[in-house]
Amino acid sequence: MPYLDNSNRRLLENAVLSARDAAEAAATTALNALAVSAQAPHQVMTPEQRKLRVVLRAQMRRLGGFEDLVQACAYEQWHRMLFARFLAENSLLLHPEYGTITLDECVELAREQGIADPWDLAAQYASEMLPGIFRPDDPLLQVKLAPEGREALERILEGIPSAVFTSDDGLGWVYQYWQANRKDEVNRAERKIEGADICAVTQLFTEPYMVRFLLQNTLGAWWLSLHPDSPLRARMEFHKPEVQHDFSAWPDEVDGLRVLDPCCGSGHFLVEAYKALLAMYREQNPDASRAALAVRPLANLFGLELDPRCTQIAAFALAIAAWKAGAPTSGLPVPNIACCGLPMGATVDQWKDLASGDAELADVMGELHELFANARDLGSLIDPAAAGMGGLFRMDRARLMPHLERALSRERSTADPASAVFGEAARGALRALDILTGQYHLVITNPPFLLTSKAGDVLREFCARTFPEAKKDLATCFVERCRAFACAGGQYALVNPQNWLFLTGDRKLRQKMLKEQTWEVVARLGPKGFHTPMWDFNVALLVFGDRAPTAEHCFVGIDASAPKKPGEKAEVLREAAVGGEAA
After folding, report:
1. How many alpha carbons fall within 13 Å on the CB side of residue 364?
2. How would you label 308-340 residue by residue, b for 16+ Cβ within 10 Å and e otherwise?
3. CB 272 within 8 A of CB 446
4. Residues 426, 408: contact at Cβ < 8 Å?
5. Looking at residue 581, what is its pLDDT?
6. Is the pLDDT confidence value at 493 over 60?
7. Any residues with CB less than 8 A from the CB of 550 and at least 6 apart, and which?
8. Are 474 and 447 in contact (CB under 8 A)?
């Protein structure tokens, strides 16, 4: 499907900005009706409402306060409607008996079943397709918006053109626009950036040409090294055969290949990598069924994200890509994507209580709490191996998960609904831990760009202590973190600030990287590389190999800094003759 043009992006931006205002107003009214921020429930509240209030208050404490809860509720309410339309517009909204249904048919079915809100029914159908994303037990989705609030959101949703929902990049733009006002608010406040503000300030949808350039000169180049006559070569418009790759540490088959985006945002790199891997599986297995092949790339792909909402969007984007490719609409594996920025509202004792008396598991849960205590600031910068978490590695993961699941099951059956909130956070932390402790053949990402001088104490001090040569900018810290994620002989590719390639203050980082790592590609984009107008800084596309360089090695250099529009820069990357410089 095509990418959105400027006209549809503007329409989508206006719709999403309006939707956030309307959703937050409606959520505030609904949460006040449940007395969530009050000291006591309203006398007229039903037992079900009182029980929901307790869960929501626990969620509020974990998130940080009432306004945080309002924002989370607004997001969930709007996005379940938005996701339902994404499914419907792609003929993927399925009734368990009737098959594909439209939103109009969903309204009719809701009326027949006496359900006031047809979006509840659409979310129910969606949850049966992918329960890891659409959770019917989510307390924020059990909040009932007043009719006028729901109708306002419906009008906004109906005004978004169909092309947005069938485009390749609609989901990515949706979240960037959702964060736009929050980003402006944080920047105007001129406060230190920490916690949830990091996502709001740094969220940036990666341009398609950047994604394809980096993937084609890493993953694509690996495939062509194995299959030089592959017909896929004709699709790789950005591939540069002059790059001196060494794929000796990579597998010889697609099975077993591991690709990670540690700052996956709305999943743009992961979706494009999925498409590339699917084409490789099809070439490798021409007689296999379409449905079976469509599922297989999901096992190759891993994602981490600071923002739990982006985690949901990325998983949804991968699911849609798999369904469009022919994957079965029921029983699809939940993608290997986890939130590594979970807010830890519980105490260490509450986490240990999840072990239900198992002393060894209690120790591990205590270490988990310590590891993720600052997760909202550090996200995928967290390195369990470097942190010396002994118990986490002594306990076999296959044994740890059943223990935790049984503990969570007991917690959910207790009379205190708040414990389930903390239990879900613990399970999410374990999924993130699995990915954080992994090693990958390719690590590819557009990390957050943030001068650490503008960051809060936790993040600034962590970067200074852990990445002393790269500490000036969060994006350059991720160069070193991606290196740690890569297996020996693996590759890592990033969108990164261009200035560390030449500024005096970054000399130690350059020297370290030039001595210890193999530079594969440096493509200078300069300013104006993004369609988003406020991002006018100089950027570069970089590919490194996790191995020491040889004296004869040359890296490929491309200068696309002169053009002032993303499309023109893409054309330079596509057509330019490349030059090598001794590493």
Report:
1. 25
2. bbbbbbbbbbbbbbbbebebebeebeebbbbbb
3. no
4. yes
5. 46
6. yes
7. 518
8. yes
Cα distance between residue 216 and residue 204, in whole Å: 21
pLDDT tens digits, residue range 330-362? 778 888 999 998 766 678 888 788 777 888 888
Residue with the bigger pLDDT between 188 and 446: it is 446
- Residue 451: both structure tokens together: 């001068």
The Cβ-side half-sphere exposure at 152, using a 13 Å CA radius, reads 19
Q: Which residue is listed with tokens 């994604």?
A: 211
Helix 66-89 with 103-112: angle, nearest 10 deg: 110
Q: What is the DSSP letter of 455?
A: B
Written as six digits, the tokens of 327 are 């994957």
Region of 578 (left: φ > 0; alpha: ψ -120 to 50; beta: rest) is beta
Contact by Cβ (8 Å): 327, 293: no
Q: Using CA atoms, how far apart are residues 199 and 310, in angstroms rounded to an integer?
A: 9
Contact 378, 460 (CB under 8 A): no
φ, ψ of residue 113 to 5 degrees: the values are -90, 0
41's tokens: 């429930």
Contact at 8 Å (CB) between 377 and 474? no
Strands 554-559 and 518-526: parallel
How far apart CA 41 and CA 54 sit, in angstroms, is 9
Phi first, then psi, for residue 498 (nearest 5°) are -80, -25
Give per-residue pLDDT as tens, 9-28: 899 999 999 999 999 999 99
Handedness of CA 244, 248, 252, 255 (dihedral sign): negative
Q: Does residue 468 carry a pLDDT above 80?
A: yes
